Task: inverse folding
């Protein structure tokens, strides 16, 4: 299904090598966007596959984030934990158009309200 | 491959569970390629660790994490997996099996591993939605769905499974009642005393118990609504979980005319009454015994695989077994007999109610035949080994119940297990059947160096956790030699060690992380979560005022200036200088707690007050209010100066020799805000009674009539280390100079994340004395450098953020409009 795109303002609202949580109440769980040193952007359900730690609070390097609670390393593109840990969180589509960040949420317009 | 061209014998396995697949794994190890293998599994999954369903239910693991073999594994090993297709018939004359989907396949050898079925008594209401057993993934799915949509659960059955189900559902937020037919819990594994202690502990954790409860009916029309007991009690419920026992799954075997009793009868070689048909696991009965734990099943799998591989000598012998419960924080162990069988048996009991400890051992003819432990179970495996070895323990009789360390003290044996002498086949982890050889092998091959890694790769201690101590010991044993010779690099991004990097930063004038990484040829251009915080600290320490801190290389606590909690909220600890506070400060803390609905207010072990459970978005406002009363950040989150604990000292105490409180305040005013390799804690005690515990601090001062004793390198924590004495001085000014110089030496020379205790253990106290005591000029220089660096950091980080700095850290991004 085509995701439902929402705009979350300018890319500069997100610190480089940093992250912001999003104000959306989504059935998948809390969502966060991540901005890399090269300005590429990823979005994940903000719950570590280990014990739901907030990944948005982790240290970002390369295309990975390290969970602040017990140091699992999560791949930002896929949401998958690096071996030997196993598990994954959902990755959502993101795009930056004219410096504005859009996140694709898998849901209908009514749910998005 | 053309199936017809494959002339190998065809082995069909019925049951894709723990026993069947373990047998296949063993067979692949012993004789890979001997058979063409087809596996039928009634469940629509690959095989998974059924034991861990309890952990999945409790939220400690996901289904993905408990998969044992992935689809690729089956493919890679040429095994045909027909999952979601149960075998419905075995035709022994035609030597074929037929499945529910209508497939009929010929076999040369057959392996039955059909496990068992949950017992379901003929209760009215059993088929209502909202009623389930606890056996497979489908059951766990039902329970998790119920936990999301409903509130109340009743578990019927107070054995291992029932208790783990109740605990899991409780963890998932349901209110849980447990009905048990007998007067005490787990009566087959625990005696009455231990069963009662268990019930009391779980009762405290919020599970309601209905013992002596005979279930008469599950009430409800559309779905389960409650449970009616025979004595008239009734309990409302939206979910009813039946866990009253299991029955070997023998239907297929019986219909095929194999010899069955309670289970499918097997001989010592794991053959059934038909020599071409084997059986393993919970479906079998061996010498009158049926099985419900994996440890003996692993032995069966080995023996069965040996015979399938062509080795006719292997024999299955049933060994003494132990049980434990996988509920976090509840330690139960039992093995062998629970009670003395007759007067010749000796029961020895140790009970300490206030500590929640209970130990009972049973001796027969000088040998150990049973053990029940509650509260402290680390000796369980040792008792089990004594039972299995049938060793004569008469000589240890009086001391045995106190545990291994005590019993063997003075007996000439080493106090811990002797890993060098232990055979490779010695089983360390009973749940997962992992031997010493397998663990040591994995440690060596994969270069494992932490308990977590060993768990991940071998599964040892990953189930009930009781063998954790043994696994840790083995890890130390296996890595001991290497640990000494291996060079400690900062992290996997580089071959460089901490000292080299620190020296290069100074010598080559490296002033950015990129410059450091370039100088040493870092493998990852951005580094990782281990090296980034280290480099950030080294640069900050070397170039005060010049290098600007990189918040993106800081652990969340140091970035947002509060401690993250397990649920993602934060704790806020304002500074209380030297442990002193005022009515005004207390008022301010109380108002903040009320205004922001802060759930917990706690006095910390560091002589100040912790506000726990603060929402992230509230942090700046909380700090703003605290600032108004003069309260500033206590840096409880920092690799930096934490606290300076004091006692009342000469101002009030009848023994006080100096003003320890006042000196503590001065020390804290001088040192607060500093960044250090690891956290730093100070304390000042007013006399050698040492009420401020100064002798386990990074730097402690013990006041005496003649002045001040300065002690350094102490540590609480896991490995308690008492301080080394540095020197005795006469004045407060000297104490301050020594303290500043000590801080700076530690800041400049220790490795990141190395506390003063391991640092001094590494460099030696003599070195520290040489730099601080024997070299007064050097000491003054260090102290000066410390004071200089302090001028750049003594700004309250809370005040800046309360005024709006780094607002992006605290507020989430709002959605603007639809695209
Ligand atoms: C809050 C407090 C417990 C309490 O309620 O009393 C506490 C809480 C934590 N301690 Fe502690 N320690 C607290 C006093 C202590 C003490 C007692 C003391 O300071 O006199 C010790 C033993 C003394 C020592 O440090 O040597 C102590 C030894 C530890 C250790 C072991 C340190 C070691 O070197 O072995 C850790 C683990 C670590 O730092 O890696 C630790 C780690 C922690 C962490 C940070 C765990 C974590 O990473 O999340 C806890 C943070 C909870 C939070 O978010 O608030 N805590 N901790 C105490 C805060 C004191 C304060 O006011 O700042
Ligand atoms: C929640 C839970 C917690 C547990 N905790 C522990 C513990 O802590 N320690 C411990 O030692 N043990 C524990 N156990 C017990 C342990 O899981 C079992 O002893 C073990 O799984 C038995 O292995 P098995 O292969 O005989 O049976 P199973 O693992 O049940 O495998 C049998 C498989 O055969 C399939 N099957 C049945 N009939 C057919 C058919 N006709 N055709 C095709 N497939 C069929 C079934 O669907 C099943 O997948 C626990 C069990 C549960 C349910
Ligand atoms: S001892 Fe310290 S680290 Fe452990 S639980 Fe208590 S506060 Fe947390
Ligand atoms: S919650 Fe993320 S590592 Fe534990």
Result:
């Amino acid at each position: 299904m085509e995701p439902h795109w929402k705009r979350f303002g300018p890319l500069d609202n997100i610190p480089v090598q940093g992250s912001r949580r999003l104000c959306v109440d989504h059935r998948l769980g809390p969502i966060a966007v991540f901005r890399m040193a090269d300005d590429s952007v990823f979005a994940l359900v903000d719950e570590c596959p280990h014990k739901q730690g907030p990944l948005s609070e982790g240290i970002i390097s390369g295309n990975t984030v390290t969970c602040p609670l017990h140091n699992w390393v999560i791949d930002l593109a896929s949401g998958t934990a690096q071996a030997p840990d196993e598990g994954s969180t959902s990755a959502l589509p993101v795009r930056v158009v004219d410096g504005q960040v859009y996140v694709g949420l898998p849901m209908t317009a009514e749910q998005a309200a | 491959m053309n199936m017809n061209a494959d002339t190998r014998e065809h082995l069909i396995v019925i049951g894709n569970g723990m026993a069947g697949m373990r047998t296949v794994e063993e067979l692949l190890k012993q004789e890979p390629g001997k058979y063409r293998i087809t596996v039928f599994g009634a469940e629509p999954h690959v095989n998974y660790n059924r034991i861990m369903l309890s952990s999945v239910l409790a939220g400690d693991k996901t289904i993905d994490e408990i998969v044992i073999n992935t689809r690729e594994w089956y493919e890679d090993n040429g095994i045909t997996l027909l999952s979601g297709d149960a075998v419905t018939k075995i035709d022994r004359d035609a030597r074929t099996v037929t499945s529910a989907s209508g497939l009929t396949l010929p076999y040369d050898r057959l392996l039955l591993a059909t496990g068992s079925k949950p017992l379901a008594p003929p209760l009215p209401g059993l088929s209502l939605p909202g009623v389930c057993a606890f056996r497979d993934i489908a059951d766990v799915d039902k329970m998790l769905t119920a936990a999301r949509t409903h509130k109340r659960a009743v578990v019927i059955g107070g054995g291992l499974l029932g208790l783990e189900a109740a605990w899991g559902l409780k963890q998932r937020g349901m209110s849980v009642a447990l009905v048990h037919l007998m007067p005490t819990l787990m009566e087959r594994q625990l005696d009455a005393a231990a069963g009662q202690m268990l019930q009391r502990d779980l009762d405290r954790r919020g599970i309601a118990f209905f013992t002596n409860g005979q279930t008469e009916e599950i009430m409800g029309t559309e779905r389960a609504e409650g449970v009616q007991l025979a004595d008239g009690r009734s309990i409302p419920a939206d979910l009813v979980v039946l866990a009253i026992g299991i029955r070997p799954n023998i239907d297929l075997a019986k219909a095929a005319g194999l010899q069955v009793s309670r289970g499918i009868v097997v001989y010592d070689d794991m053959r059934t009454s038909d020599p071409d048909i084997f059986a393993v696991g919970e479906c079998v009965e061996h010498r009158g015994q049926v099985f419900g734990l994996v440890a003996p099943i692993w032995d069966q799998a080995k023996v069965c695989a040996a015979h399938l591989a062509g080795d006719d000598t292997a024999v299955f012998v049933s060994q003494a077994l132990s049980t434990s419960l996988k509920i976090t924080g509840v330690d139960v162990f039992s093995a062998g007999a629970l009670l003395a069988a007759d007067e010749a048996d000796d029961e020895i009991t140790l009970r300490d109610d206030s500590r929640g400890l209970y130990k009972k051992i049973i001796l027969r003819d000088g040998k150990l035949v049973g053990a029940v432990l509650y509260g402290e179970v680390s000796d369980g495996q040792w008792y089990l080994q004594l039972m299995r070895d049938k060793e004569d323990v008469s000589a240890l009789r009086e001391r045995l119940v106190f545990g291994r360390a005590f019993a063997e003290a003075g007996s000439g044996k080493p106090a811990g297990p002797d890993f060098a002498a232990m055979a490779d086949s010695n089983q360390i982890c009973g749940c997962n059947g992992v031997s010493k050889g397998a663990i040591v092998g994995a440690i060596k091959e994969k270069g494992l160096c932490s308990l977590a890694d060993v768990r991940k790769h071998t599964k040892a201690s990953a189930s009930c956790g009781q063998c954790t101590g043994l696994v840790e010991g083995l890890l130390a044993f296996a890595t001991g030699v290497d640990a000494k010779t291996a060079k400690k690099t900062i992290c996997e991004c580089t071959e460089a060690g901490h000292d080299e990097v620190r020296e290069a930063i100074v010598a080559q004038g490296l002033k950015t992380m990129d410059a450091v990484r370039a100088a040493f040829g870092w493998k990852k251009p951005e580094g990782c979560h281990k090296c980034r915080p280290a480099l950030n600290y080294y640069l900050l320490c070397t170039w005060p005022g010049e290098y600007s801190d990189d918040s993106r290389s800081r652990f969340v606590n140091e970035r947002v200036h509060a401690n993250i909690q397990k649920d993602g909220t934060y704790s806020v600890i304002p500074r209380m200088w030297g442990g002193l506070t005022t009515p005004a400060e207390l008022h301010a803390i109380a108002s903040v707690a009320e205004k922001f609905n802060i759930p917990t207010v706690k006095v910390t072990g560091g002589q100040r007050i912790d506000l726990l459970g603060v929402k992230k978005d509230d942090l700046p406002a909380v700090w703003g209010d605290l600032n108004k009363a003069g309260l500033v950040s206590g840096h409880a989150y920092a690799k930096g100066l934490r606290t300076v604990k004091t006692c009342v000292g000469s101002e009030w105490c009848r023994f006080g020799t100096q003003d320890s409180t006042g000196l503590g305040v001065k020390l804290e005013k001088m040192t607060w805000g500093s960044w250090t390799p690891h956290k730093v804690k100070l304390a000042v005690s007013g006399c050698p009674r040492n009420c401020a515990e100064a002798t386990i601090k990074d730097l402690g001062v013990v006041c005496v009539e003649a002045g001040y004793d300065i002690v350094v390198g102490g540590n609480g924590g896991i490995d308690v280390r008492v301080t080394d004495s540095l020197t005795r001085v006469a004045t407060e000014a000297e104490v301050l100079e020594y303290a500043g110089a000590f801080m700076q030496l530690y800041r400049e020379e220790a490795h990141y994340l190395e506390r003063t205790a391991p640092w001094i253990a590494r460099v030696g106290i003599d070195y520290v004395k040489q730099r601080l005591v024997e070299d007064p000029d050097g000491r003054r220089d260090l102290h000066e450098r410390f004071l200089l660096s302090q001028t750049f950091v003594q700004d309250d980080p809370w005040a800046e953020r309360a005024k709006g700095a780094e607002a992006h850290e605290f507020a989430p991004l709002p959605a603007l409009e639809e695209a």
